[in-house]
Amino acid sequence: MNEPANETRPATGPTAYVPRRITGPVLMGVVPGQPLAVAHRAAELAYSLKVNLICAYVDVTSYLVKEPDGRVEALPIDPDGIDDDIEGISESIRERLQDALDSTGIDWSFVMLAGDPARAMGRLAESVDASVIVVGIRERGLGARFEELLVGSVAVHLTHRQHRPVLVVPLAPHTKHHRQEGH
Description:
Blueprint: E1 26-30, H1 37-49, E2 53-59, E3 62-66, E4 72-76, H2 86-101, E5 108-114, H3 117-128, E6 132-137, H4 142-151, H5 154-161, E7 166-170
Parallel strand pairs: 1-2, 1-6, 2-5, 6-7
Antiparallel strand pairs: 3-4
Helix pairs in contact: 3-5
């Protein structure tokens, strides 16, 4: 039974992809001393998408504990801690971001998280329905390589632990090789 060549059949199979408007915020991970290039790129993305920017600092010297009453509290891994001034560090990061972002017209906020950076960022991304996560890559050096061997790259862990896209901003630009005129 052949169908006539000019007869059309209804489409079968999966429905066509229809893109949706991105409405979730841009989530940016920040660390002390991070070049503002990461914040600038995240701000450009948030501005272009017309969404909010959430800047998150993860305190790796503390961990989360769920209390019997349902509250979640961050406790230090070592009560005698290596860094007793976590509030000061957090405030310093927030002030630096404020100087860089307040004049941009972008709605932005700063939050402090605790624990493993990739897990903490993933949980926050899920809870706010983030559109994208923006992180910087540490500048290359022996210390950065050693740390990456021990704990791994936050960007890599993020890409493996959740379904949102991760934008990785390089912090050390590569030098460009320019051809000289006449050669």
